[in-house]
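ok so i was messing around last nite and threw this chain in just to see what happens. nothing serious, just curious
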Amino acid sequence: MIQGFGNVGSYAASELHRAGVKVTAVSDHSGALYCGSGLDIPGLMRHAQRHGSIAGFSSELRCDPDGILTMPCDILVPAAMEQVIDAATAEKLQCRILAEGANGPTTPAADLVLAQREKEIFLIPDILCNSGGVVVSYFEWVQDLQQLFWTEEEVTRREYDLLDRAFAQMVSRARQDGVFNRTAAMAIGVERVRAGKNTRGLFP
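result:
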Protein backbone atom coordinates (compact mmCIF):
# COMPACT_ATOMS: atom_id res chain seq x y z
CA MET A 1 0.00 0.00 0.00
CA ILE A 2 1.40 3.40 -1.00
CA GLN A 3 -0.23 6.45 0.58
CA GLY A 4 0.91 9.44 -1.47
CA PHE A 5 1.71 8.79 -5.14
CA GLY A 6 3.95 11.80 -5.69
CA ASN A 7 7.69 11.68 -6.31
CA VAL A 8 8.49 9.55 -3.26
CA GLY A 9 5.44 7.30 -3.56
CA SER A 10 5.86 6.63 -7.27
CA TYR A 11 9.55 5.84 -6.73
CA ALA A 12 8.64 3.44 -3.92
CA ALA A 13 6.00 1.79 -6.10
CA SER A 14 8.47 1.46 -8.97
CA GLU A 15 11.14 -0.12 -6.76
CA LEU A 16 8.67 -2.51 -5.13
CA HIS A 17 7.28 -3.49 -8.53
CA ARG A 18 10.80 -4.05 -9.88
CA ALA A 19 11.56 -6.25 -6.87
CA GLY A 20 8.54 -8.40 -7.65
CA VAL A 21 6.37 -7.05 -4.83
CA LYS A 22 2.69 -6.74 -5.73
CA VAL A 23 1.40 -3.19 -5.11
CA THR A 24 -2.31 -3.49 -4.39
CA ALA A 25 -3.28 0.07 -3.41
CA VAL A 26 -2.13 3.65 -3.94
CA SER A 27 -3.54 7.05 -3.12
CA ASP A 28 -2.80 10.72 -3.74
CA HIS A 29 -4.61 14.04 -3.33
CA SER A 30 -7.13 13.04 -6.01
CA GLY A 31 -8.25 9.70 -4.58
CA ALA A 32 -7.24 6.07 -4.14
CA LEU A 33 -7.07 2.88 -6.19
CA TYR A 34 -7.16 -0.76 -5.07
CA CYS A 35 -6.70 -4.04 -6.93
CA GLY A 36 -6.20 -7.23 -4.95
CA SER A 37 -4.32 -8.91 -7.78
CA GLY A 38 -1.92 -5.96 -8.10
CA LEU A 39 -2.04 -2.60 -9.85
CA ASP A 40 -0.40 -1.89 -13.20
CA ILE A 41 2.37 0.26 -11.74
CA PRO A 42 4.16 1.17 -15.00
CA GLY A 43 0.82 2.16 -16.56
CA LEU A 44 -0.21 4.09 -13.46
CA MET A 45 3.09 5.97 -13.39
CA ARG A 46 2.73 6.96 -17.04
CA HIS A 47 -0.82 8.16 -16.35
CA ALA A 48 0.24 10.17 -13.27
CA GLN A 49 3.13 11.79 -15.14
CA ARG A 50 0.83 12.73 -18.02
CA HIS A 51 -2.12 14.00 -15.95
CA GLY A 52 -0.53 15.07 -12.68
CA SER A 53 -2.46 12.60 -10.51
CA ILE A 54 -3.97 9.11 -10.47
CA ALA A 55 -7.45 10.52 -11.10
CA GLY A 56 -9.06 9.05 -14.20
CA PHE A 57 -6.83 5.97 -14.34
CA SER A 58 -9.73 3.62 -13.56
CA SER A 59 -13.24 4.12 -12.21
CA GLU A 60 -13.53 0.42 -11.33
CA LEU A 61 -10.49 0.44 -9.05
CA ARG A 62 -11.43 3.49 -7.00
CA CYS A 63 -11.61 3.01 -3.23
CA ASP A 64 -11.96 5.08 -0.06
CA PRO A 65 -8.67 6.97 0.49
CA ASP A 66 -9.42 7.26 4.22
CA GLY A 67 -9.19 3.49 4.60
CA ILE A 68 -6.00 2.79 2.67
CA LEU A 69 -3.71 3.09 5.69
CA THR A 70 -5.51 0.38 7.61
CA MET A 71 -6.00 -2.18 4.83
CA PRO A 72 -4.34 -5.57 5.38
CA CYS A 73 -0.95 -5.64 3.62
CA ASP A 74 2.66 -6.70 4.02
CA ILE A 75 4.22 -3.26 3.42
CA LEU A 76 2.63 0.13 4.08
CA VAL A 77 4.41 3.22 2.72
CA PRO A 78 3.07 6.57 3.98
CA ALA A 79 4.83 8.77 1.41
CA ALA A 80 3.03 12.10 1.41
CA MET A 81 2.18 14.17 4.48
CA GLU A 82 3.37 14.50 8.05
CA GLN A 83 1.40 12.97 10.93
CA VAL A 84 -1.07 10.96 8.84
CA ILE A 85 -0.76 8.08 11.31
CA ASP A 86 -2.15 9.08 14.70
CA ALA A 87 -2.59 6.84 17.72
CA ALA A 88 -6.05 5.61 16.65
CA THR A 89 -4.77 4.74 13.17
CA ALA A 90 -1.66 3.06 14.59
CA GLU A 91 -3.92 0.76 16.62
CA LYS A 92 -5.69 -0.30 13.42
CA LEU A 93 -2.67 -0.85 11.17
CA GLN A 94 -2.63 -4.31 9.56
CA CYS A 95 0.77 -4.15 7.85
CA ARG A 96 3.84 -6.22 8.65
CA ILE A 97 6.30 -3.47 7.64
CA LEU A 98 5.76 0.28 8.02
CA ALA A 99 8.21 2.04 5.69
CA GLU A 100 8.07 5.78 6.33
CA GLY A 101 8.63 7.42 2.96
CA ALA A 102 7.40 10.83 4.14
CA ASN A 103 9.03 13.01 6.77
CA GLY A 104 7.37 12.49 10.15
CA PRO A 105 4.26 10.60 8.99
CA THR A 106 3.71 9.28 12.53
CA THR A 107 2.62 11.36 15.52
CA PRO A 108 4.43 10.98 18.87
CA ALA A 109 1.32 9.30 20.32
CA ALA A 110 1.25 6.84 17.41
CA ASP A 111 4.92 6.14 17.96
CA LEU A 112 4.14 4.90 21.47
CA VAL A 113 1.54 2.53 20.01
CA LEU A 114 3.99 1.28 17.38
CA ALA A 115 6.64 0.69 20.02
CA GLN A 116 4.17 -1.55 21.85
CA ARG A 117 3.37 -3.36 18.58
CA GLU A 118 6.98 -3.78 17.44
CA LYS A 119 6.66 -7.58 17.39
CA GLU A 120 3.73 -7.23 14.96
CA ILE A 121 4.93 -4.30 12.84
CA PHE A 122 8.54 -3.72 11.79
CA LEU A 123 9.18 0.02 11.50
CA ILE A 124 11.66 1.51 9.02
CA PRO A 125 11.83 5.08 10.37
CA ASP A 126 11.85 8.09 8.08
CA ILE A 127 15.40 9.07 9.08
CA LEU A 128 16.55 5.91 7.28
CA CYS A 129 13.72 5.01 4.90
CA ASN A 130 13.64 8.24 2.92
CA SER A 131 17.32 9.15 3.17
CA GLY A 132 18.21 7.95 -0.34
CA GLY A 133 17.66 11.37 -1.91
CA VAL A 134 20.02 13.07 0.55
CA VAL A 135 22.60 10.31 0.04
CA VAL A 136 22.57 10.80 -3.73
CA SER A 137 22.78 14.58 -3.31
CA TYR A 138 25.94 14.00 -1.27
CA PHE A 139 27.27 11.75 -4.05
CA GLU A 140 26.67 14.58 -6.54
CA TRP A 141 28.66 16.98 -4.33
CA VAL A 142 31.53 14.48 -4.06
CA GLN A 143 31.60 13.98 -7.82
CA ASP A 144 31.59 17.72 -8.46
CA LEU A 145 34.53 18.21 -6.10
CA GLN A 146 36.54 15.47 -7.78
CA GLN A 147 35.39 16.23 -11.34
CA LEU A 148 34.97 12.47 -11.61
CA PHE A 149 31.47 11.36 -12.54
CA TRP A 150 29.95 7.95 -11.90
CA THR A 151 27.50 6.01 -14.05
CA GLU A 152 23.91 5.59 -12.88
CA GLU A 153 24.70 1.95 -12.04
CA GLU A 154 27.64 3.04 -9.87
CA VAL A 155 25.55 5.63 -8.04
CA THR A 156 22.81 3.06 -7.39
CA ARG A 157 25.31 0.45 -6.18
CA ARG A 158 26.99 2.88 -3.79
CA GLU A 159 23.63 4.11 -2.49
CA TYR A 160 22.29 0.60 -1.86
CA ASP A 161 25.55 -0.47 -0.19
CA LEU A 162 25.36 2.50 2.18
CA LEU A 163 21.65 2.05 2.96
CA ASP A 164 22.04 -1.70 3.50
CA ARG A 165 24.85 -1.02 5.95
CA ALA A 166 22.83 1.65 7.77
CA PHE A 167 19.82 -0.67 8.00
CA ALA A 168 21.94 -3.48 9.47
CA GLN A 169 23.45 -1.08 12.01
CA MET A 170 20.00 0.13 13.08
CA VAL A 171 18.70 -3.41 13.55
CA SER A 172 21.82 -4.42 15.46
CA ARG A 173 21.64 -1.36 17.75
CA ALA A 174 17.92 -1.90 18.43
CA ARG A 175 18.58 -5.52 19.47
CA GLN A 176 21.70 -4.69 21.44
CA ASP A 177 20.09 -1.91 23.48
CA GLY A 178 16.57 -3.34 23.53
CA VAL A 179 15.09 -0.20 22.00
CA PHE A 180 12.62 0.70 19.26
CA ASN A 181 13.98 0.98 15.71
CA ARG A 182 13.33 4.74 15.61
CA THR A 183 15.26 5.23 18.84
CA ALA A 184 18.16 3.17 17.52
CA ALA A 185 18.30 5.11 14.23
CA MET A 186 18.16 8.48 16.00
CA ALA A 187 20.82 7.45 18.52
CA ILE A 188 23.21 6.41 15.75
CA GLY A 189 22.56 9.65 13.85
CA VAL A 190 23.09 11.90 16.88
CA GLU A 191 26.27 10.06 17.84
CA ARG A 192 27.71 10.48 14.35
CA VAL A 193 26.93 14.19 14.25
CA ARG A 194 28.50 14.63 17.70
CA ALA A 195 31.62 12.68 16.67
CA GLY A 196 31.94 14.77 13.51
CA LYS A 197 31.66 18.02 15.44
CA ASN A 198 34.21 16.84 18.00
CA THR A 199 36.64 15.88 15.24
CA ARG A 200 36.32 19.36 13.74
CA GLY A 201 36.70 21.07 17.14
CA LEU A 202 33.16 22.50 17.06
CA PHE A 203 32.44 21.37 20.62
CA PRO A 204 32.69 21.73 23.72
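not much to say yet. The chain is about 50% helix and 10% strand.
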